[in-house]
Structure formats: structure tokens, C-alpha cells
What we know:
The protein is an alpha+beta fold. Helices cover 42% and strands 18% of the residues. The longest helix is centred in the last third of the chain and has 14 residues, at 39-52.
Amino acid sequence: MTQRVQQKQRLLSENLPRPSLQARGYLVDEQGREIAITERMIQQACHELDQQWVAPRSLNAS
Length: 62
């Protein structure tokens, strides 16, 4: 896991409202530490994916 990803996870988890702090799952990093995955983290990741999404080109386009 890159340092940038770890910093982003830390920032996300530090700025979460209390109800979203309940873990929905866990990741295990290279050092064997468990990192809680919260609902807010999942929502943020989905939002970022939505922002980056590009419609596929049609295969029938000439």
C-alpha cells in the first residue's frame, strides 16, 4: 500500500461523522495492521469513481 493511499485513508477516517465510524469490514496492510472500512469510506470511493467514469465508445462507431 502506498504512502499516499495510507494518508488518504487516515484523512477519510479522521473526518468521518460518528455514525459512519462503525466498521463494515477490514483491510490488512503490508505490516499486518487491520484498517477498518466504514460506510463513509465506501461512499467516498464510489463518489470518486463516479467522478472519473467515462462512457465507453460504441463498438459500431465508424
